[in-house]
Description:
Elements: E1 5-11, H1 15-28, E2 34-39, H2 45-50, E3 54-58, E4 66-68, E5 71-73, H3 79-96, E6 100-104, E7 109-110, E8 121-124, E9 128-129, H4 136-145, E10 153-154, E11 161-163, H5 164-173, H6 176-180, H7 196-206, E12 212-215, E13 222-223
Parallel strand pairs: 1-2, 1-6, 2-3, 8-12
Antiparallel strand pairs: 4-5, 6-11, 7-13, 8-11, 9-10
Amino acid sequence: MNKKVGFYFNCYKNKYATDNVLNILRQFYPNSPVFLMCDKGDDFTDIAQKYNCEYYYSNINILGGAMYNGRPYMGFRDSDCLKEYLKIVKIAIKYCKTEYLIFMEDDVIINGIITEFPEHSGGDINHNKFSNLISKEGIDYLNDKYPNIKFSYWNMAGGSIVNCNTILECIEKTNIEEILYFNKYCTYPFGLCHTNDVTLNFLLMINGKTNDFWTNTHKSNMRHPDKRFYNQNLKIEDGVHRK
């Protein structure tokens, strides 16, 4: 099945990993569009040119601003980070002009060409239930307000895939305040929309879209997490929150 794919790659300060992951990506997808986005980290212009990527630098540290008990965590600091992230996803889709968009990170390794595509989206087979993140009152509210919900978990981490028209529709149909509203029901310290993967799944879920178990399967040939290009000297300040 020949479906055109583009790649959204969020980088920060780990140039060694970004370089090597893109090198592997280009072995399997030499001509596919790649949108390389750095959220207020180092300058990756040279890496973008080396691998023929569209480069976007954000002056907002989208995923590195969450604080809890005085310690930084990967996640949105506030609603401005959430808005910036969704804005850039739309810019990436406009640039790629592809049917599907794959979310790359420094620990996502491509092992081959995609063999099967999901209808709307696909994420990690290792998923987390929204019932572990939202109170029972919140779950009841979700089911009442959005009766077309078809799944109740989040798994859209690195290596996941989304149909571009599907996610654009979800973003356009959903008000930011509608997402932020569920922070009141969140049992997690950072709020419901604390990371990009949770936000993507939430948008898909409340809009009645489907989500397949895709990453880390033969369908995707994507492996995540794979830390082969990390080293123990990297710290949270380098954008490495889990080694």
